[in-house]
Amino acid sequence: MTPPPAPTRLTVAVDTRGGRLALVRGGAPQEFTVTLWNGNSAAYRHVLVAFQMEMLVGEPGAGAGGGSGFLLERFDPASGSWRPAADFRVANDVKPPSQFSGGGPLAREAVRTERYRLRATAGGPTGSSPLVVSFIDTDADGEVAAHVVLGHSTR
Question: Cα dihedral sign for 94, 9, 47, 149?
């Protein structure tokens, strides 16, 4: 008799050309993908992909879809258009997983790939700060995979 497959968990990857984002103020956005591979252990009702970047020198604050100086957008395949990503935060403190809501389903053994793009506005700050990508089960108020740090610089 064949033994059952070993339990596997959620695996994630963040992919961009060159392994980092090199932005130019007022320049074109840079695209990247976020892929979630669910193992055979659990189905999720609400897995949220959330983003945070530390404030750069001279940056006054943050808002939905981006902070002053940055705009993060998610590609909506249903409409074929880019929309501001609601779960993007520019701040110097960490938002606890229990304060997030939303997210989409991810069945056992399913794969979900989301497209994003980040742009630096013309009047935004310059410098380097990593973009932290977190994966949160909003039903359980916790991260379901280790966060990924994507290198970023703006000139």
Answer: positive
